[in-house]
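Follow-up to my earlier ticket, as requested here are the two runs.
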Amino acid sequence: MSAPMHPRCSSAMHPFGIATRAQLRVSGQSDSTISRNYHRVLPRIYSIEEPSPISRCYAVTVWQPGALLSHRTAAWLYGWIDHTDTIDATVPSSHHHARTPPWLTLHRRALRRQEATECQSLPVVTRERALIDCIAVMKPEDVARVVDERLTTDIDPDTLKFVIRSTPHMRGNARAKAQLRSASLRFASEPERVLARALTAIGLLMHANFWVGRYMCDFVDELARVIVEVDGFAFHSRTEVFSKDRRRQNELVLDGWLMLRFSAYDVMANPDKVARQIADVVRRRRAARR
């Protein structure tokens, strides 16, 4: 149970429950009371209770006034990923190398004013910089989903390219360029997204979510006249849906299209294998039709 708060100290506490030692002293707290009743978050920074992730974020910005929350922490604040055990913040290169607790990672680089913004009342890097930062530190297979989702929602690919060009030699740029080249920008499900990336990785570009006549198809190659469909985990659970799909497939096949169907389970289990199977068929039919 947390210790009762001194009646005069509430005014010293920020809404995030954080205060400096100086603020607590002004509110009438002695050093011994502070040490006894408050959680030390960072040097000279305290919390009434065990600090939450958001409280720690604010504490970092109080401890390092020039810091911007960045990398995975910025991604979490933007709602892209779940909270991680580590708080990431970026400070100017000129900042002294302070010792940090295990839950805090400080990154050092030149901070440009145009790459600073605010999220949840906290100073953070912009969305574009946060995405590049995440690409630099996260595993490629983990960050791929984040990249695809962001480039189809709240980050313009051209703006991201501009940020990369305007900060040459910045860590993460090379990986970010690679992610842009392999990004899946048109997908209706996670299996489709994963398969699109696998196809791009082997150099096969197909239209995604593309109209063939009056039907929307998952992947289409017009030259080879190949359609690829990824059937969901609960696909065709109702008789009428099953019958409608069979009529659709028959109409496309009779019009000269080859339809390849894969279950979402098989795609997620081995997307590279599925992509190779598709590529073999598409390239063979392309060659035959030239």
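Run two:
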Amino acid sequence: MAGRLQRALDSAHDSHGVTALLVVSMDNIRWLTGFTGSTALLLVKKSDSVLIVDGRYTQQAADQIRLSGASARVVEARTQSLQLEQLSRELAGVKTCGFDSSEITMLNFEMIGAQNTCSFVAANGVVQQLRRVKTEAEIARMQLAAHATDLALAEVRSMLDEALTHEISERDVRDELEYKMRRFGADGPSYETIVATGVNSVKPHHRPTSTIIREGDAVVIDVGGIVDGYHSDMTRTFLIGQVAPELAAIHDLVLYAQREGVMAVRPGVSGASIDAVCRNIITQAGYGPDFIHGTGHGVGLQIHEMPWVRTDFIEPLQCGEVVTVEPGVYRVGVGGVRIEDLILVTATSSQTLTLSQKESLCLPSRRTI
């Protein structure tokens, strides 16, 4: 972690001409310093860097910064007004300071600007760009999170096997998955686990309800674990009992598109190109209007971060980045299917980190009406 502060300042200076960088995003502060509290201000300058925290975090910040190897002073300021006063003192002599306008409210920006004479320059995405390529330690945490998710889903499959003979709800499946993930080593879920059955399966971000899983349903399960701040992300779609032929065909189509998308992941290929691989397959099959979201996104300290796998992201992927590939088809009156894996970009190709079975997910056996 040592050297990240200087890299961030150098990048902000090279791209925006600033001599200091104000960081307020806790994910970015964690990546730069190792500090895992809930609130702080980080000012990175050429002479030194300072992390301003309230009294709850003074000792924690000092310990975590020391362990990370980052070079930053910790200053305690117990109220917001005192923190802004301290920031103003630290900015003395600074002519231009970069900040990320997506991470700070207009009110806070006006409060900071009112107390300082330096010029503030929007330097959006500076730290996020640096976070794109993961270290071996970061990848290892994501692998642990993915493994916990794989193990949890394998055990929860037995619940779905019983869906034809027992009343099992979306919430039942969610609760069991999140319990099992913790049991297998995750600190918790990356996000509220999505379990969407029947008519709910056409809603990509459906929140689990008491809806009972029935024969003929598609059950979309989107689940991720978190280990030491780093996320995993995976989606599987199960078909329950006798299903309509069109729903079975949609599952086969999405599975094919997803496999082809995963095969396209490698250094130098843009997110837009991978999106096009999946989208063209689905469009040619007549379901283009039913593919209603991007194909994927980066994963790391945030569940959604750079790089993006969508039509407008033309930057090439780099070795060490981790992305999802998750095409989906959502046809009202038939059902929704999404299949997603977490993919590490390697030196020449890619490695799939989520290993749960994708094929033959019709339970208890593949049958169509």
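The only thing I checked on run two: The chain has two domains: 4-131, 136-368. Let me know what else you need.
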